[in-house]
Design goal:
It contains 17 helices and no strands. Helices cover about 70% and strands about 0% of the residues. With about 375 residues, the protein is an all-alpha fold. The radius of gyration is 22 Å and the shape is globular. It holds the Pfam family TetR_N.
Length: about 375
């Protein structure tokens, strides 16, 4: 009894909340499959056995983490009066998102690992958030595409969960809120014709068995997640015996590395062409990135979602390529907005990327000149 007293006294009353917060951060940084219950328990300072007293398995904990952000967003909206201005609405959503920055990344890519019913429920609750923002956007800015502009604004806000740029939370809120507010007010027709000015190289044509394996694996990784795809499925898609895969790739992770490297190479080509385009270089850069995202959306989603799960040695060249890519954007953005320092510029660049991801999804990545132009206009609104 004497030994149990101090332990009970020091046990935090909000341990379940602490567990969910720690787990959300680990799931966001490492991915659902790479994270372990032992690692999560260590992050909270408890044993794995104690963790299992709160959650019966990793999936139950993951599902609880998935509810945190949407609960916070819905609660923030409920606290804002129905007739409040758009800026107040977006400010409330921004505060919640920044508060959950470390754990919010799991919603963009890891939510696909939720069971179908849980995923459907999560989407319905996010749809409520989108609907509320759409109504306010329509009221204040009666332009075409109010729902897409609402989604774009939320994409700009949600982007803060997808990178680690070190900057004060209050400054993050200020920059992201301004970006989201501009996006919501952007005329989607303001970049008509911009996408046509930058032509990208065509899709790589598989000319070897190794290339065929890569081309078959990418859509499987994009649809089901790298961890859920087997070599047998990849082999079947190519018409090979599973053992034949190993003649071309030592393991499945090597196929993933090849996909990420291919994505980095194609993006570098897109950027290079944009810098030599006759159009305004900033508009051309945005249009090229949008075109790349539509043209190679499966490949890009694989690279974005799975790179964090690679071993450090394999991830390093991809991180270097990403930094080089961001540096090009930073140079162009700071030329247009010299008041921005490097960190603020990077934050806004990621906001632009967030706009592309969320609007592309909303458009189901239907690759038309009109859709490319619309997304290009919204990204420009997020940046400048």
């Amino acid at each position: 009894m004497t030994s149990a007293g101090p332990a009970a006294a020091t046990r935090p009353h909000n341990r379940r909340q602490l567990i969910v917060e720690a787990a959300g951060q680990i799931f966001s940084e490492r991915g659902y499959h790479a994270a372990s219950m032992e690692e999560i328990a260590g992050g909270v300072g408890i044993s794995a056995a104690a963790l299992y007293r709160h959650f019966p398995n990793k999936y139950a904990l993951f599902a609880a983490c998935a509810d945190v952000m949407v609960d916070g967003l819905a609660g923030a909206l409920d606290a804002v009066p129905a007739d409040a201005p758009l800026r107040d609405l977006l400010a409330a959503l921004t505060r919640v998102t920044v508060a959950h920055r470390a754990s919010g990344g799991l919603y963009r890519w890891e939510a696909r690992y939720l069971a179908r019913d849980d995923r459907r429920r999560l989407r319905a609750r996010f749809a409520h958030v989108v609907g509320r923002v759409t109504e306010t956007v329509r009221r204040e800015h009666p332009l075409p595409g109010e729902r897409l502009r609402a989604v774009a604004a939320l994409g700009a806000i949600g982007s803060v969960t997808m990178h680690h740029t070190s900057i004060a939370p209050r400054r993050i809120e200020e920059l992201v809120l301004a970006s989201a507010t501009r996006v919501a007010a952007t005329d989607p027709a303001s970049a008509v014709g911009s996408a046509a000015r930058v032509e990208l190289p065509g899709r790589p044509v598989p000319r070897t068995r190794r290339a065929e394996i890569l081309a078959a694996a990418v859509p499987l990784f994009a649809r089901d997640g790298f961890a859920n795809v087997t070599n047998g499925q990849i082999a079947q898609a190519v018409g090979l015996a599973p053992s034949a895969i190993y003649r071309h790739y030592p393991g499945k992770v090597d196929i993933l590395v090849a996909a990420c490297l291919q994505a980095a190479g194609l993006l570098a080509q897109a950027v290079d062409r944009s810098l030599h385009a006759p159009a305004d270089p900033r508009t051309a850069l945005i249009a090229a990135y949008v075109a790349y995202s539509f043209e190679h959306n499966a490949l890009n989603s694989v690279a974005e979602a799975e790179v964090r799960g690679l071993p450090d040695a394999l991830r390093r060249p991809l991180v270097v390529a990403q930094r080089e890519h961001i540096a090009v954007w930073e140079q162009q953005l700071r030329a247009a907005r010299p008041e921005l320092d490097a960190r603020a510029a990077r934050l806004l660049i990621h906001a632009g990327f967030g706009v592309v991801v969320e609007t592309g999804r909303a458009l189901r990545w239907q690759d038309t000149p009109e859709n490319r132009d619309t997304v290009t206009a919204l990204v420009a609104g997020a940046l400048i």
